[in-house]
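Record type: ASSEMBLY
Status: queued
Input:
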Amino acid sequence: MYADWPLLSLVIWTPIVGGILVLFAGDKEDSSGAKKLALLVSIVTFLLTIPLYTEFNVDTHLLQFVERHSWIPAFNINYFVGVDGISMPLILLTSFTTVIVIIAAWESIKYRASQYLAAFLIMEGFMIGTFSSLDAILFYIFFEAMLIPMFLVIGVWGGANRIYATLKFFIYTFVGSVLMLVALIYMYNKSGSFSIFDFHALQLNLDEQILIFLAFLIAFAVKVPMWPVHTWLPDAHVEAPTGGSVILAAIMLKIGGYGFLRFSLPITPDASLELDWLVITMSLTAVVYIGFIALVQQDMKKLIAYSSIAHMGFVTLGFFIIFRIIDNGNGTQGAALALEGGMVQMISHGFISGAMFLCVGVLYDRMHSRQIADYGGVANTMPMFAGFMVFFAMANAGLPGTSGFVGEFMVILASFQANFWIAFLAATTLILGAAYTLWMVKRVIFGDTGNDNVRALTDINRREFFFLSILAMAVLALGLWPDPLVDVMHVTIDNLLNHIMISKI
Amino acid sequence: MSEFIQPNLIPVIPEMVMLAMTCLVLVVDLFLPQAKRGFTLFLTVLTLLLTAAAVIAIAPADTVSTFGGSFILDQLAVTLKVAILLISALVFIYSRDYLKDHDIYKGEYYVLGLFAVLGMMIMTSAHSFLLVYLGLELLSLSLYAMIAFNRKSIQASESAMKYFVLGAMASGLLLYGISIFYGITGTLDLNQVSDVVRMQLTENPIALSFALTFIVVGLSFKLGAVPFHMWLPDIYQGAPTSVTLFIGTAPKIAGFAMAIRLLVDGLSDLQAEWSQMLLVLAVVSMALGNIVAIVQTNFKRMLAYSTVSHVGFIMLGLLSGTEVGYSAAMFYTLTYAITASVAFGVLMLLNREGFEAENIDDLTGLNNKNPWYAALLAIALFSMAGLPPTVGFYAKLSVIQAVVSIDMVWLAVVAVLLSVIGLFYYLRVVKAMYFDPSDEGRELTIKESLDVKILLSLNGLSLLGLGIFPSGLMAYCILAFS
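Status: finished
Output:
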């Protein structure tokens, strides 16, 4: 019944247009009008994304909900959007998270609330656009454009050191992406089109592939972020307002991972094979070394930021371990497991890291401190909140039954088919992750009531209960029954894998 | 004895309209009291719009030339002339309140401005060395006077003096190059020059390169490419902001036209030589312009250095020596002029009597005071930085595409990395507007004339509009070189 609707365009443009309307609703004494409008827009957008899932045909790797219109004929650039099993779940994650972020901002943002909400809605449109673009320039436009609202969100509503953090964030990402632009233009000159699928089919020799691969690697490694270009993330996370941290962790980081699947692997398969050691090393360093760094953090947000880097290391590990698995003669079964594990990890991390940042936000709204040392024994005054926080912390540590376990387990399992030591190093995350997360929980939540400020805390209200419980349900559902997610991407992943295995040289 | 032939006057109708109207403005203004000066502005804008209408009305399907081939009207000239006229009209309207506040709201300002526009129109259509030079001098002389227009400002007088001396030197260099070409080819007509150069290419390569060097130097001077950029920051900073706005927009388009006429129409057989020269100029312009702009605290001076870097980008398009490259450079020039008019237009609104808003600090807290203008300026800055979805992105995209298409990927990489440096100082201005707390003691006034507000808003939104639908303008740029 939705076949004739330009559903994807609606999903992209509803929040952008809605965001502009919210902007014009203005900042009056009472900003509840703008808030209600923003909430309405985000919910409508979320509802519009649901048919993408329900009407999705899981038996084909072909693009669905495709729209293609000529846009800039001079460069053969098309307005070309569509989804497959890889991008569709990420779009749902985006529209879902935005609703949560807007509810979370309800009381905590008092300064220029309409601009804040508008920034998130516009960003939502850009992010969905990034996931659904099938034209490289369209992708690049959305990819870059979303930096602007995030730059403003951190810079205007951020903490004390916000200007340093937001400039660093912007410039890091921009440096990465300009090289990608040159690579895209180079491929356009060879293929005469900016369609990503024409790039997939483009024959490139190994030297070209390696340069293009490196250009993509810089762009996406900064975005993910991978060690050693991760340093912007802790700064940005610490200074960003809660909503900014949530979107950053839950969605923006995923765009890097998505980029590897959409661009690097299929466009430059031989270079990926050649240089997989580089990505695997970077990923394992992220998992182990960054895990240790997370252990010593004094600031809760910084700790979660580092834990995000470590968890995203799993995603990139899963994506690039495939060549070794196949090399070992384990067939595409194991490789598919690794790719799917990476994807599940991305979605799961979206929920868990978002929830963790929201938990910190709940505390920050009350105490205006993110230092672990300022807390202690929160469970005594905020029992309900303590329950949620412990649950999400367990999920972050990869407790079986939560979504955090599924992705990590799949990737570790697949890694064993490649190399025991890689799998071993990756598996240390189960210990490290538990160590830093649970140690933080111990110091913040449990123990004797730390000080008078903690004693005066009030437990979460209905609004906070609402968004935390929804996230908890999502984490649990995905942990207990991941099939609905894995099923939609299965065919797409298999097809991608077949494509990668054919050398382009 | 050759018979006198009546030249075809139709292609020059716009210039004749312009000249007649300018004289009319000059005379009418004499009889107006200061309170009715607005009528002069009205007549000035009317002149520009009428001329633009005339250009469009007589726009030929094919190239038409007259006056023995020294004046040409082709698609390139039509598009550039319309752009120059419309942008100049905008510039004059934006400047009104500024001129009032600084006591330079005089009729002569507009007459000089109109003569400058006439000079630019001649430059775009010139097809002989002589006419190129005449148009350039008409433009430059008017600009010298406009910069010095505020007699009370020592800084402005200094700038005008500097511009005059350096500009005269640049003209001299250009003229020297022209004279050598005249010596080699025996003609001033660019078509004939082109033919003779082709024949002389193997016999006289050194003399040709020698002459070409002077032409390129003169051009670089006028465009403001490193190392001939020294005048630019001082003039941008010292001139009244209204004049800076004027210099920063339409004359860039005319300069581009001059480059095309001289290098592409006249000396295309020397393309291998001038591409090499432009390559060096472009890279150092982008590098120096972007790096030096970082440390500026004066907004006008910062934009001057940013202009230097944009000139580098325009040269990248030119040096590719392909039609794609020329049209990319043209697109870049046009959109840069539109973008600069927004940036200076917003800056000018912050002026008030006895106060010249020109530092980045003067923009602090603009978002609190007036979010709309802050947003317009932010769009302009993001466009200069080349971020999508603004039009500056397509300008950069098309130029980089042209560079990559001639297999100079390294140059494209250099260009984009240098533009990252550029991003930093544009963001600094955005930071001042959005992030920095506003000083309690400092006054921030914003002029609220309805016409300026509407036009500036449309102008600012056009950066987004063209960013989302660049095809229309791009089609004109491609048409100009096909």
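Annotation: Strands of chain A lie at 64-72, 77-83.
Annotation: The first helix of chain A runs from residue 7 to 25.
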